[in-house]
Fold this protein.
Amino acid sequence: MILLAIVLGTLASGIGSVWLAALLSFGVLARYTQHMLSLAAGALMATAFLHLLPEAFESKVEPHDLFLTLLVGLVFFFLLDKAELWHHGHEHHHAAHDHEHDHSHSAHDHPASERGGGTWAVLAGDSVHCFGDGVLIASAFMADLRLGAIASLAVLAHEVPHHMGDLMVLRAGTSNKRAALVKVSLAGAVTALGGVIGFWLVAQLHDYLPYFLVVASSSFVYVALADLIPQLQKQLSARQTAAQIIWLFVGMGLVTMVSGLAHAH
């Protein structure tokens, strides 16, 4: 009974939050792509600095170990991004031999967003984050069914603005809404995996939760600063610049507000 509740709760929060985010990003807010990139950057940074990292540092783990994990995570996602860009450029190089007009489409001619920069970093970080959420939900259900239901709703709510950011990163990289939705949904489904494993190994996994949180943080910080912010750093009118800044703070504000409500409950 408890295991079934954990599976249902983690699937509802993990995948439900992605679909709700997609409904907002691709439906209501679909016309505001540039604004959504600003919102994505704000949401990712706020998730890392105001939600995940504080929670990790509240644990009994030595701060030095957590900072080391953060540093290693940033370097890892940098290398992952490099490997992704190299692979993408390699594919373009081979395509040039098949299409003589492809000489104008080498990897160096594409901006980071078109080469898919940050895609694997954000998906890897998302998966780690969702796994940690699953363990937390499992812990709540094992304490009390009602507490588990509240935890599932809280995770669903605070993941929506974050997943809006994820979808915009992937949308900018692939220009394919369906592919972006499927990839982020698969990452969200890892919440259920974390819940099931957490059901059996909750005591042991709890000791590693701070590290999961820091690794997830490192991916979000890397994607925001290395992929999204550079796309926003272009010469714009005063009005467009103001809009960028406003949407950046909207992203931060949404995550802060929803996380605050989740913790209050």
